[in-house]
Amino acid sequence: MKKLISALILSLLICTSCYDDGDKPVADIKAFAFYETTDNPGIKKPDIDAKVFYYYKIYPDDFSGYIYEKDGVFIKDNLPDIKPDEEYRIGENGSVSFIPEYMNGSATIVIESKYYEGQIASTCFSSTKNGAGFHKTFKFE
Protein backbone atom coordinates (compact mmCIF):
# COMPACT_ATOMS: atom_id res chain seq x y z
CA MET A 1 0.00 0.00 0.00
CA LYS A 2 2.86 2.32 0.87
CA LYS A 3 4.40 1.70 -2.58
CA LEU A 4 1.06 2.51 -4.28
CA ILE A 5 0.74 5.82 -2.45
CA SER A 6 4.36 6.67 -3.25
CA ALA A 7 3.76 5.87 -6.92
CA LEU A 8 0.62 8.03 -6.99
CA ILE A 9 2.42 10.95 -5.37
CA LEU A 10 5.34 10.58 -7.78
CA SER A 11 3.06 10.51 -10.83
CA LEU A 12 1.14 13.51 -9.51
CA LEU A 13 4.38 15.45 -9.10
CA ILE A 14 5.49 14.54 -12.60
CA CYS A 15 2.16 15.52 -14.14
CA THR A 16 1.95 18.86 -12.36
CA SER A 17 5.56 19.75 -13.13
CA CYS A 18 4.90 19.16 -16.84
CA TYR A 19 1.98 21.59 -16.92
CA ASP A 20 3.04 24.88 -18.43
CA ASP A 21 0.57 27.73 -18.69
CA GLY A 22 2.86 29.21 -21.35
CA ASP A 23 1.73 26.49 -23.75
CA LYS A 24 -1.55 28.33 -24.27
CA PRO A 25 -1.62 30.27 -27.51
CA VAL A 26 -1.48 34.01 -26.91
CA ALA A 27 -4.25 35.91 -28.65
CA ASP A 28 -3.12 38.95 -30.57
CA ILE A 29 -4.70 42.30 -31.31
CA LYS A 30 -5.39 43.24 -34.90
CA ALA A 31 -5.90 46.79 -36.15
CA PHE A 32 -7.01 47.66 -39.67
CA ALA A 33 -6.85 51.15 -41.21
CA PHE A 34 -8.01 52.18 -44.66
CA TYR A 35 -9.02 55.44 -46.31
CA GLU A 36 -11.39 56.58 -49.03
CA THR A 37 -10.97 59.66 -51.20
CA THR A 38 -13.66 61.97 -52.55
CA ASP A 39 -12.52 61.02 -56.08
CA ASN A 40 -13.10 57.31 -55.45
CA PRO A 41 -15.72 56.90 -52.74
CA GLY A 42 -16.26 53.28 -51.76
CA ILE A 43 -12.74 52.28 -52.85
CA LYS A 44 -10.73 51.50 -49.72
CA LYS A 45 -6.96 51.86 -49.79
CA PRO A 46 -4.58 50.80 -47.01
CA ASP A 47 -3.61 53.71 -44.75
CA ILE A 48 0.03 52.62 -44.81
CA ASP A 49 2.11 53.90 -41.86
CA ALA A 50 -0.95 55.04 -39.92
CA LYS A 51 -0.01 54.96 -36.25
CA VAL A 52 -1.69 52.58 -33.82
CA PHE A 53 -1.42 53.47 -30.14
CA TYR A 54 -2.13 51.11 -27.26
CA TYR A 55 -3.07 52.52 -23.85
CA TYR A 56 -3.12 50.13 -20.92
CA LYS A 57 -5.72 50.66 -18.17
CA ILE A 58 -7.02 53.89 -19.69
CA TYR A 59 -10.80 54.19 -19.80
CA PRO A 60 -12.87 56.36 -22.18
CA ASP A 61 -13.84 58.67 -19.31
CA ASP A 62 -10.14 59.31 -18.65
CA PHE A 63 -9.97 61.20 -21.97
CA SER A 64 -12.79 63.58 -20.99
CA GLY A 65 -11.76 67.16 -21.66
CA TYR A 66 -8.45 66.15 -23.23
CA ILE A 67 -7.41 67.34 -26.69
CA TYR A 68 -5.52 65.11 -29.09
CA GLU A 69 -2.17 66.67 -29.90
CA LYS A 70 -0.32 64.14 -32.10
CA ASP A 71 1.71 60.95 -31.86
CA GLY A 72 -0.76 59.43 -29.41
CA VAL A 73 -0.51 62.23 -26.84
CA PHE A 74 -3.63 63.77 -25.30
CA ILE A 75 -3.26 67.06 -23.39
CA LYS A 76 -5.38 68.97 -20.87
CA ASP A 77 -4.59 72.11 -18.88
CA ASN A 78 -2.99 71.45 -15.49
CA LEU A 79 -3.27 67.68 -15.81
CA PRO A 80 -0.65 65.12 -16.84
CA ASP A 81 -0.59 64.21 -20.52
CA ILE A 82 -2.01 60.84 -21.51
CA LYS A 83 0.66 59.00 -23.51
CA PRO A 84 0.46 55.60 -25.17
CA ASP A 85 2.13 52.59 -23.62
CA GLU A 86 2.96 51.09 -27.02
CA GLU A 87 2.98 52.19 -30.67
CA TYR A 88 2.67 50.22 -33.91
CA ARG A 89 2.33 51.02 -37.65
CA ILE A 90 -0.18 49.86 -40.23
CA GLY A 91 1.50 47.80 -42.95
CA GLU A 92 1.05 47.66 -46.71
CA ASN A 93 -1.94 45.35 -46.38
CA GLY A 94 -3.78 47.87 -44.19
CA SER A 95 -3.29 45.99 -40.95
CA VAL A 96 -1.02 45.33 -38.01
CA SER A 97 -1.10 42.46 -35.56
CA PHE A 98 0.59 42.71 -32.19
CA ILE A 99 0.78 41.18 -28.74
CA PRO A 100 1.01 43.98 -26.20
CA GLU A 101 3.10 43.74 -23.07
CA TYR A 102 0.02 44.20 -20.88
CA MET A 103 -3.11 42.24 -21.78
CA ASN A 104 -4.98 41.90 -18.49
CA GLY A 105 -7.37 44.72 -17.78
CA SER A 106 -8.88 47.42 -19.92
CA ALA A 107 -7.19 48.93 -22.95
CA THR A 108 -7.81 51.73 -25.41
CA ILE A 109 -6.60 51.69 -29.00
CA VAL A 110 -6.23 54.86 -31.07
CA ILE A 111 -5.43 54.92 -34.79
CA GLU A 112 -4.01 58.14 -36.26
CA SER A 113 -4.47 58.30 -40.03
CA LYS A 114 -1.39 58.88 -42.16
CA TYR A 115 -3.41 59.87 -45.23
CA TYR A 116 -5.85 62.22 -43.48
CA GLU A 117 -3.50 64.02 -41.12
CA GLY A 118 -5.09 64.82 -37.78
CA GLN A 119 -7.93 62.30 -38.04
CA ILE A 120 -8.08 59.71 -35.31
CA ALA A 121 -10.37 56.86 -34.33
CA SER A 122 -10.50 55.03 -31.03
CA THR A 123 -12.07 52.08 -29.29
CA CYS A 124 -11.74 50.46 -25.90
CA PHE A 125 -11.89 46.94 -24.53
CA SER A 126 -12.57 45.74 -21.00
CA SER A 127 -9.89 43.11 -21.58
CA THR A 128 -7.65 42.09 -24.47
CA LYS A 129 -6.36 38.80 -23.04
CA ASN A 130 -8.53 36.85 -25.52
CA GLY A 131 -7.52 39.07 -28.43
CA ALA A 132 -9.23 42.06 -29.99
CA GLY A 133 -9.78 43.75 -33.31
CA PHE A 134 -10.41 47.27 -34.55
CA HIS A 135 -11.27 48.31 -38.11
CA LYS A 136 -11.46 51.92 -39.32
CA THR A 137 -11.95 53.50 -42.72
CA PHE A 138 -11.01 57.18 -42.72
CA LYS A 139 -12.93 59.52 -45.02
CA PHE A 140 -12.65 63.14 -46.05
CA GLU A 141 -14.27 65.43 -43.47
From TrEMBL:
Keywords: Signal. Residues 1-20 form the signal peptide. It comes from the Bacteria. This is Lipoprotein. It comes from Dysgonomonas hofstadii.
